[in-house]
Amino acid sequence: MTLPTLDTERLILRPRVRDDLEACLAMDRAPGVVRWVPGPWHDPIAHRAFVEARLAAVFPDGLGYWTVVERAARDRFLGWVLLIPVDGIGPEIEIGWRLRPEVWGRGVATEAAARLIAHAEALEIDQVIADIHADNAASRRVAAKIGMVEESPVERDGHAGFRYVARLSPRPTAHRPARRALPEGRRDGEKGVPEAPIRTPSGGAAAARLMRPSSSVWFQSAPPARGRRECCR
User: Fold this and answer.
1) What is the 3-state secondary structure of 173-219?
2) Percent of the chain, pLDDT > 70?
3) What does the pLDDT average to over 142-168?
């Protein structure tokens, strides 16, 4: 299964590609975009290397990054959203978003993230998480609007935050029972469940434990590094 193109009333979410690199870098440099996200944003070389590594990463079927554009202006990059294994290895699945400041306050993050929640249900994923910086009020509102519930405090890179969880209810079919939680690193043969650490064309799993997204939650953290994340605005 390749990463599908998804759509909403106003938006198209298409698989993020290497041609989006410069737009991603420019967005990260805009004032306020990575305010709540520790990372290599002030080091141009490390910043580029981080984004390039994420663009090259291979995620489990149906999971990855999507570039967000408007139906009415499909050549205009608005930002990205993601649905990937936490830290690249799971077993939990995280959601994240990052958008250009010009589109903040228009409901774009909520609309795009809600579409990813529906996509996660279609993949029969049991739950989706987002760890959000305590002071990131905008992303915490987005999480609540898409049905995520604040469950517990978390700490990342010395910063306090909260874990938000969406527990999904995929519909069982006549041929497939309802999903159950799986042990770490295991899958039951059904699509949409991470089977192993993500891998990049140039190396092993350690190189692919990239940071978490940023545009929705908290972290788009430092350069590609073990156990780091890249999430949200």
Assistant:
1) ECCECCCCCCCCCCCCCCCCCCCCCCEECCECHHHHCCCCCCCCCCC
2) 72
3) 93
